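Page 37, continued from 36.
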């Protein structure tokens, strides 16, 4: 499972945001099921940042978000993400895809 969180960060907040985003990535990396993660900043629009993480499963990601240290460190940063879908399934060759339909969260 791939998670893509994008952020719009004003230039005057970027130094602190970069530290906070790295701390969020670090605490997520310590959780079971985390495969890898990367931070990035858009080359054309420097106010646009991204955190991508890969997880063994949706369950591993959801359990990671419920951990105390993640709630304390990562969730405040993740709450600043642009409001858009962020969870993606692996669609590489041979990957079995879920049915193509919108899902309700409630």
């Amino acid at each position: 499972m791939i998670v893509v969180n994008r952020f719009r960060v004003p230039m005057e907040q970027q130094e602190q945001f970069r530290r906070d985003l790295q701390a969020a990535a670090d605490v997520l990396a310590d959780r079971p099921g985390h495969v890898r993660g990367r931070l990035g900043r858009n080359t054309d629009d420097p106010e646009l940042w991204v955190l991508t993480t890969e997880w063994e499963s949706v369950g591993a990601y959801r359990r990671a978000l419920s951990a105390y240290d993640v709630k304390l460190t990562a969730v405040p940063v993740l709450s600043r993400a642009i409001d858009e879908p962020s969870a993606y399934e692996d669609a590489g060759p041979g990957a079995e895809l879920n049915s193509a339909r919108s899902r309700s969260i409630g």
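Strands lie at 2-8, 34-41, 48-55, 87-88. Flag for discussion at group meeting. The mean pLDDT is 93.
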